[in-house]
Every structure is written in structure tokens, then in C-alpha cells.
Design brief:
Its cofactor is FAD. This protein has 18 helices and 14 strands. It is of the alpha+beta class and 488 residues long. Strands 5, 6, 7, 8, 9 and 10 form a six-stranded antiparallel β-sheet that branches. The longest helix is centred in the last third of the chain and has 19 residues.
Length: 488
């Protein structure tokens, strides 16, 4: 939505720049490109401060003595599998156990739940905490049947956002926080729009521009926002995706995603989609199999100002918000595609990959997810379960080494006629290899199975793979000699 607004402004003649920080918000605004370090000035009759939770830092550039009006509040959200909510029904409860609002909504074929509301420091990198995640999970349990187990391991992604709650400096009651917006004008003429929310952005923009026109004697006609369509809306229709399927040979799910995301611009994405080489779909290679995002969106994202891998996984697609592990798996391919478009060298590719992994690890909940299984995790299994899992482990550890490697897994898979790419196998084992020594030890496997039983970990590929292999091998009973005709 933010991108659509910026692109629409550009279509109407606005000059836009991302990854740019302001050094001094005077009539000659000093700016710096944070990617290149290049500095430049922008001349303006009027400067508007619309920086959300960073409102006060910009106001203090204008006047160091001005009191703060912004009270940042952290709101954590989590994403869970789609089966936790009906497709077309959401739930909102304004009276939870501690008075906070909780919502539970279907989103992008998943379930989004939130939110917390607690004071926080302003940062560009907010991090969700385990405490906040568990609060949401505990509240969610109140709305589901007793037969539905809400598991910590079902949290696919988690993030924290910062709400810019404000006090009105012109109000007598300056202590009360408002979720509405406030427009103020400093002695030097800096206009600040603070507070508010996405759903009222047009009213916020109208009030801000009206104030700018009035305070700075600007020439302008009447407000044009009512009925003004955003980028991509002009040629959109509910059946647009059918033309994408028919004209380009895209999968129906991918076509629906492109139509709802890009509107009429979806055809521009489809035009640059690669041929798959399959009978169907004809074009549109997915970044990850379970989500409708295709490689062409990375190329198109670069054309729409994307400059980092984080831009693609979080600001051009929703992959990081829907499944942090899937985003992690898609990163190498995303970086390769962007490198061709932006002429990155090998060092730049490495830096982009590491930066994006750090973003997923801390800001999108990968750390709190992986913390559910550590080398200090308790093993709380019944003796019978321990013996059962040891037996399963020994099916792979034929040499009784006390650990299994990729070669051990490949040998078992080969015996049951299953093939898995070596890189994929490496990732599967790495999820459980807690001490990162390239092998999974018996104790690590027991810790995994204990965490699975407790619901702290779900969807472990190694656990499912080993169970499936055990079942297939178990069905291969040896034929008795008497039934084989005596043998030779």
C-alpha cells in the first residue's frame, strides 16, 4: 500500500526517493542516500514531517526545545496456519484478560493474530519477544474448541510494529494519548502530521495539505483525493486473473495473486515471467512451492525501487510475514536474480544474503522460533517413547556412531526409492544440528522429538522424513523360506 501511494504520487509528478534520511528539515532540506552515502539538498517552500514513530526526532532537528508528542507503542503480530480460521470470517475481542484488543483473521490463506500494546523505544529494527508471542497464543486458545491444540510450533512468523500514538500539543489534556492524527505547525513553519493509521491516510493527507496551503500561502485547487485511484487500479476487475491464465499460461493461484497485488500492472509482471518448460503452467517459476510468488516479481520489484533482498521478502512480497522459514529458503535465488538486475559483485551478494538472514532471524521471529529447540532443551519423554525414537534413529545410524549425516539419510532414502536434493537435505539436517557440527547426534534427535511432542516445534522435516522412512521400511517384511518355495 505504501508503495502504491508513492508510485501514484510519482505518476502525478512527485519526485520520490527511498533509502534517504533527512539531516535538517529547513526550507533547504539536507538529505543523504544511506545506500551510497551521497548527500544532496532539496529546496521547498514548505516541509512536511510525516515520519510516524520518528516524528519527534525530526521535530527536534527543527527546534531542540520542543516537547515530545509521540508515544511509541509496540504491537506484536503472529502468523499461523490457515486451518486456524475460516476463510471468510474474522474475530475481534476488545476485552481480553488484561484489557488489550485481540484479533484473529484469515490473511493470505494463513491466519494472522495480534496484538500487544506496550511502550517501546523508537527503533528501525523492532523485535518480537517470546513473552508477547505467548500472550497472543494464550488469548487465541480462549476462542478455539477444546479439541484444537494451539501449538507454539505453529507460529510461522512473528514481528513487532511501532504505533506512533500522539498527544495533541494544542490540547489542554496533553497526557491523553490519541489514536487519531494531529497536525501541528512549528514557529519555523515545519508542518508535522503525527498519529493516525493506514485506514484514514486520505483524510490525514487532506488535512495536512490544507494546513500547508493555508500556512504557507500556496496556490492550489480543491482536494482531489476522493475517487483518486491508486497505481494499478485503473484496469483492474474481479475477473482480471482469468485473462492472465488464458493469455500467459499462469497457474490460477499465481494469476489471482498477481491480479490482487498489482491490479492492472499484473500484465507487466506476466510479460517478464520465465517459461517453465512444463506442460503447465507455461510461465511463472515460483520462488517457493507453497506460495504464489514468482521469480518475475523480483525483477519487477527492482523496477519499482526495490534495492535490497529485504525489500523483496518483506516489502514487495509478503513471504517473510507469512513463513519465515520459506523466506529463508527463497533468499539465495532472490539474491541471484537481484544481482543480475543491479550488477552486484560476489561480495555484495554475500552481504545482501547475510543482512536478509539477520532480518529474518531477529525481526521476523526466526530467532524465537529456533530458540524452541536449543542444545539446552529439556528431554521429557516417557521411557517407552525414548526407546521407540532410539530405534528409529538406529535405522539411520547403521554403524552405531551415535550420530547421523547426510550420507546416512541418503542411504535410507535410496533403499525406499526416495530422492531428495542434497542441498535440501543439508537444510533439513541443519534445522536440528544444534551445535552446527554437520551431523545430528542422538541427543539432538531426542530433544527434537521432545519439543515436537510438547508442541513447541511443528513441521520438522527431519522428524516427518524419519517417521515416514521407518513406516515404509517396516512394511517390507521378509518372505519366509517355506513360502518362497524353499529357496536355493
Amino acid at each position: 500500500m505504501n508503495l502504491a501511494i508513492a508510485l501514484t504520487a510519482a505518476r502525478y509528478g512527485a519526485a520520490t526517493a527511498n533509502y534517504t534520511e533527512v539531516r535538517a528539515p529547513a526550507q533547504r532540506v539536507s538529505c543523504r542516500d544511506v545506500l551510497t552515502g551521497k548527500e544532496f539538498d532539496v529546496r521547498a517552500k514548505c516541509v512536511i514531517n510525516a515520519t510516524g514513530p520518528f516524528t519527534d526526532s525530526v521535530r527536534k532537528m527543527d527546534d531542540q526545545e520542543v516537547p515530545n508528542i509521540c508515544q511509541p507503542s509496540a504491537g506484536v503480530h503472529i502468523v499461523m496456519p490457515g486451518y486456524y480460521s475460516p476463510d471468510n470470517m474474522g474475530l475481534l475481542d476488545p476485552a481480553t484478560s488484561d484489557g488489550r484488543v485481540i484479533f484473529f483473521l484469515p490473511w493470505e490463506k494463513m491466519t494472522i493474530a495480534g496484538t500487544t500494546d506496550s511502550p517501546t523505544d523508537v527503533t528501525s529494527h523492532p523485535i518480537p519477544t517470546e513473552e508477547d508471542i505467548n500472550f497472543i497464543l494464550s488469548e487465541v486458545r480462549n476462542y478455539l474448541g477444546a479439541d484444537v491444540e494451539v501449538r507454539r510450533g505453529d507460529v510461522l512468523a512473528a514481528w513487532s510494529g511501532i504505533r506512533p500514538l500522539v498527544t495533541n500539543p494544542d490540547s489542554k489534556d496533553t497526557q491523553s494519548l490519541s489514536r487519531n492524527h494531529v497536525v501541528t505547525v512549528s514557529d519555523s513553519g515545519l508542518i508535522t502530521i503525527a498519529g493516525g493509521k493506514w485506514t484514514t491516510y486520505r483524510a490525514m493527507a487532506r488535512d495536512t495539505i490544507d494546513t500547508a496551503i493555508r500556512k504557507h500561502n500556496l496556490k492550489a485547487g480543491s482536494c482531489q483525493t476522493m475517487g483518486l485511484q491508486l497505481e494499478g487500479a485503473q484496469d483492474w476487475s474481479p475477473t482480471l486473473y482469468i485473462r492472465l491464465v488464458q493469455d500467459y499460461g499462469l497457474e490460477s493461484e499465481v494469476a489471482q495473486h498477481l491480479a490482487s497485488t498489482y491490479g492492472g500492472k499484473a500484465f507487466e509482471v506476466a510479460k517478464i515471467a520465465q517459461v517453465t518448460g512444463k506442460r503447465w503452467p507455461i510461465v511463472g517459476k515460483r520462488l517457493v512451492s507453497e506460495f504464489p510468488y514468482i521469480e518475475a516479481e523480483v525483477v519487477y520489484g527492482v523496477k519499482e525501487y526495490a534495492r535490497t533482498a529485504v525489500d523483496i521478502i518483506s516489502r514487495r512480497t509478503r513471504l517473510a510475514f507469512l513463513n519465515v522459514q520459506a523466506a529463508h529458503e527463497a533468499l539465495p535465488r532472490i539474491v541471484d536474480i537481484m544481482a543480475k538486475e543491479l550488477n552486484w559483485c560476489e561480495q555484495q551478494k554475500k552481504e545482501q544474503l547475510e543482512t536478509a538472514k539477520t532480518f529474518l532471524y531477529y525481526e521476523m521471529g526466526y530467532k524465537v522460533k529456533t530458540d524452541q529447540l536449543t542444545d539446552a532443551s529439556e528431554i521429557s519423554l516417557a521411557p517407552s517413547d525414548i526407546e521407540r525414537y532410539k530405534k528409529r534413529f538406529r535405522m539411520f545410524d547403521k554403524d552405531k556412531k551415535g550420530f547421523i549425516t547426510i550420507l546416512d539419510v541418503q542411504r535410507v532414502l535410496q533403499s525406499i526409492s526416495v530422492q531428495i536434493d542434497e542441498n535440501a537435505l543439508h537444510e533439513i539436517l541443519n534445522e536440528v544440528d544444534l551445535n552446527k557440527n554437520g551431523q545430528v547426534e542422538l541427543n539432538e534427535f531426542l530433544q527434537l522429538m521432545s519439543a515436537v511432542q510438547k508442541g513447541r516445534v511443528s513441521g520438522s522435516r527431519l522428524a516427518v522424513l524419519m517417521k515416514s522412512a521407518e513406516e515404509k521400511l517396516g512394511r517390507r517384511q521378509a518372505i519366509p523360506v517355506d513360502r518362497s518355495g524353499g529357496g536355493l
